[in-house]
């Protein structure tokens, strides 16, 4: 006789409970792995985002520390968009855009920082911006062909001319401003003498300026002389071989890494036209003689005495902490010469030298000192697309 199972018989329930327990434990383990994975991705995203922001900050810094004179030629509202640049050899890239805000050389600098995966896809990005202005050097004294603290002796066949000229082969595009005559020599002590066949002309030919002091040779508007030295394109020793100084064009581009390249003031030379707009800052660390047929333009700073000989030509601003003298040859300076002479020894201009004032050469040279400078009351701002 078959017996009906008892309703209180529990055989087989253990299997069901075990299966249920496995399901619950599996769900818990899956949940733990899911949460851990989400937290891992969140932390990775946070790290990548921080790296992208730091990369964008590096992009801003790269522009603020570099020559920015080309930005001043932008039209108001126009932008200069840089190429993507890699930060080191890692997966971080940035792109910087400089937009001219107004005619007073105010700019908005934005940088896009990206963190990229191995397949070059972007895993995180940040964009930041900074308001900046163009900081440039400016001569703090009245214009003159030569500004000095001591005596000036002009002899031989030398010519010091304060009547403003546009350098030969420079067009009105290079020199859009009206010409304005200046003093031939501006000085604060001693005397100005002209001997032999030397000549001195200007408006006036010489001007005694009792207010002139050593700050005229160390303070230049947004910069002091040490600031200019710190951003110099080249720092050269006194014994540098200046015979090779001249424009250097490589593959159609002005090679600004070559220390012989001081720009191209000869605008009639089509083969080196790429360097016509390059006005570097050159710093020479000691007493120097420029004796060659080289040529250059920009701002030349000499820590000591400067002697120009031969046919060397320089267009722009010459600043010497000692004396400026010339020897044999047909050396020429177009622009202005500032010679600080704290011992009040003579500044001699002898031989066949010409110091010709040119406001155009000075303006272009000082524009070459342009650097973007952030407003001190504002740091960068996060942009959101």
Major sheet description: 11 strands, parallel
Question: Whole-number average pLDDT?
Answer: 86
Given the C-alpha coordinates, what overall shape results? rod-shaped
The Rg value, from CA coordinates, equals 33 Å
- The assigned structural class equals alpha/beta
**Estimated helix fraction:** 10-25%
| Distance separating the two termini | 84 Å
Tally of helical runs: 3
Flag low-confidence runs: none
The number of E-state strands comes to 28
Question: In percent terms, what proportion of residues is strand?
Answer: 35-45%
Describe the structure using short key phrases:
single chain, alpha/beta, 11-stranded parallel sheet
Q: Which helices and strands occur, and which strands form pairs?
A:
Elements: H1 13-64, E1 79-81, E2 85-86, E3 92-102, E4 106-116, E5 122-135, E6 144-148, E7 152-154, E8 159-161, E9 183-187, E10 192-194, E11 199-201, E12 206-208, E13 219-220, E14 223-224, H2 225-230, E15 234-236, E16 249-250, E17 253-254, E18 281-284, E19 288-292, E20 295-302, E21 306-310, E22 313-320, E23 324-329, E24 332-339, E25 347-349, E26 354-357, H3 359-367, E27 371-374, E28 381-383
Give a structural overview:
The chain is α/β, with parallel strands linked by helices and 385 residues long. Helices cover 17% and strands 35% of the residues. It is built from 3 helices and 28 strands. The strands form 6 sheets. Strands 6, 8, 9, 11, 12, 15, 18, 20, 22, 24 and 26 form an 11-stranded parallel beta sheet that branches. Strands 1, 2, 3, 4, 5, 27 and 28 form a 7-stranded antiparallel beta sheet that branches. A hairpin with a 3-residue loop joins strand 3 and strand 4. The longest helix has 52 residues. The protein is rod-shaped. It starts with 12 loop residues before the first helix and ends with a strand. 39% of the residues are buried.
